[in-house]
Amino acid sequence: MTIHASEPVVPFWYTPESEKDNDNPTRFHLKPLNGVEMFEVRSKIKFDADGQLVTTADCARTVLRAGLLGWENFLDGAGAVEFDIANRDSNIARIPFAMVSELFSELIKRSTLSETVRKN
User: Fold this and answer.
1) Using an 8 Å Cβ cutoff, are 89 and 66 in contact?
2) Is residue 30 over pLDDT 60?
3) Is pTM beyond 0.90 here?
4) Of 10, 51, 95, 97, which is most buried, counting CB atoms within 10 Å of its CB?
């Protein structure tokens, strides 16, 4: 059986569930993680005493550092929040917890889909 190379990761725009009905929604520019990035993520996943999967802050930070490329219409009290490509940690710090969780889940989902499912 021939080994096939992974398809190149293709960035995409993600609209959070809470923004779907908004005329001018906040959107996040994301990219699925590649194989090496996913390997790093898997090394940071922990299990509790009952064997349940526990996602650590370090794991979530790793996913967002690798997968968050930008945003649009992301606002605070002073207006639009500028995405600083040079400082991923300051970008991540601006995202509320619930949204970190949603973005983390979407990135993991998009990074682990089979190529057949992703093409359809």
Assistant:
1) no
2) yes
3) no
4) 95
